[in-house]
Amino acid sequence: MERDLRETPAYREVEAFFRACLEPGFGAVTGLGTPEASPDGRLVAFPGEVLAGFEGHERSRICLAAADGSGWRTITAGPNDDVQPRWSPDGSTLTFLSDRLQEGRLQVYALDARTFGEARRLGDVAGVVEHHRWSPDGTRLLLVVAGEHAEQADALGSGTLGRGDAAAPGWLPDVESTDEADEWRRLWVLDAATGEARRVSAEGRNVWEASWLGDDAAAAIVSGAPGEGAWYGAELAVIDVVDGSERTALTSDIQLNFAEGSPDGRTVAVIEALCSDRYVAAGDLVLVDAGSGERRTVDAGPVDVSWARWTDDGIFAIGLEGMDAVALHVDPSTGAAHELWRTGEGVGDYQPAGSPLPGGGFAVAVASARRPPAIVAVHDGAERELAATDHAGRAESIRHLGRSERISWDAPDGLRIDGLVRTPAGVGPFPLILLVHGGPVGAVTEGWLGTTQALLLSKGYAILMPNPRGSSGRGRHFAERVVGDMGGDDAKDLLAGVDAVVAAGVADPDRIGIYGGSYGGFMAAWLPAQDPRFRAAVSISPVTDWYSEHFNSSLIDWVGDFLRDVPEEPGGQHHLRSPVLMGETLRTPTLLTAGRNDRATPPGQAVEMFRALRARGIPAEVVVYPDEGHGVRDFPAVLDLTTRTLGWFERYLKPAGGAGTPVR
Length: 664
Description:
The protein is an alpha+beta fold. It is built from eleven helices and 38 strands.
């Protein structure tokens, strides 16, 4: 396939489909982030994503909804991105982060909650403000500030935070050094009245995230090094914001996430979860005594908690049980949890999240295959829609969907595996796309359909999205089953899912393809070498060579931990589970893509696999996007990738002759 597809009929067809689905929403809010309720519960702020056209990516704006459902509006206009709304404790001020003055350099801005007029800037700190929280007394803000060369989480695109100097000559090299001066994340305190800021974290301590613990301390996730790999061994610390002293409150053999200090300064609620990606965490909710370090695990039953916030009468928490999102009220004195609500719809972004409302209610962002993203308030189990993102293009997407339903099947060892299958209208069997989620610790839930899936459905493909062992929502033991066995029993779970939909008459056994990004990209390279039934593969931002992934990516610690292997060991997991080394079992035509700025799965991973396939005479293509990181997020690259993906499947999965004649 040629380099520039823009004038080809295939590209124009894809662009026309995307235009039909997205253009009616151009300039309007069509994506919704985690809501933040005002202290009095009358208003709910949330970030909303706006796509102006097929150039660049969605831009975020701060939106405001009345909690009684009487209406909502956008209250910021950028330029660039406005994110992370936070209310002052008295509700008089709404702060947010914005890079309106310099793209990529987020700083703190404030709106008067009486008028929501022009935002004013609060202070100026060197670097990028990633997180900010109000002190319980409302006088200060806690900031996590990253250097411009700090690594971005791979879930958010990988690469580094700094966008570079557009005026710099093109020959200037990229430089990576053991001198890490501009890679650290520091903790700062900003005076809300004067805008004066001072750093409080110590040298040699990297602060990944933090919240207030009373008015004079912070609960923080910290490590002794700034690289992305160091996060996997980070610990919970208490930092005195007056003198900067630090003491360790909790260490873990897995990952600690989203530390939430209580307003009285006595307790930290923190999520302890096996993680493969920063910001993607669902596991145990642990309560830690800030003074003694004594820990108690909340009895949340089968729910993997992914979000928690302190309230006047305890803790609001939300998480996953299987594919359901479940909201809980936690009594911190007993560690007992009571279920408030559950839904089969998708909630939040990577994992369920939300905001408590006074009186025991809460607000969340929800979506499903037939329900575009919406903000809802929930009281006593009843939902009230506060903001919706429907438009004419949504109906165009939905009309190509026949069914979206949960299914389950038995793995070869008898373990029950769940998943989601979406089919076009009509009667099967259909050509099947096995879509594997990233992670491996992540989860498929019933989220919005999306344009790429709608396009595949419009072409007659069914889509199977499994949650194999290693996925979130079924407890730590289920997630840990993938550790030391990536590409082992979890691969068998996926293949058993394909068997199940073939047996049910949903999938044509002679027209099966696989598609995935990140760990899903690994599987899209790995599974075809294990099973000859795959006729085509599309592998996005994959791992294909665990040796080079170990030494050439930002995830060196994660690779060793999840393989349970060292690269120096001859014939170990680095060798046995690398798709590029599968030799004669490489047989499937494969499209590989990568982003040049990706540090999590660097572009060499895709290139290596391409060359391994080409050496064996297997049809393959590799596409490297120069301005992308982990995955493809910007237009028109999205259209280019979609055109190549659809073209690949059309070439190898569609009948060569009449209906029912498979490609051989």
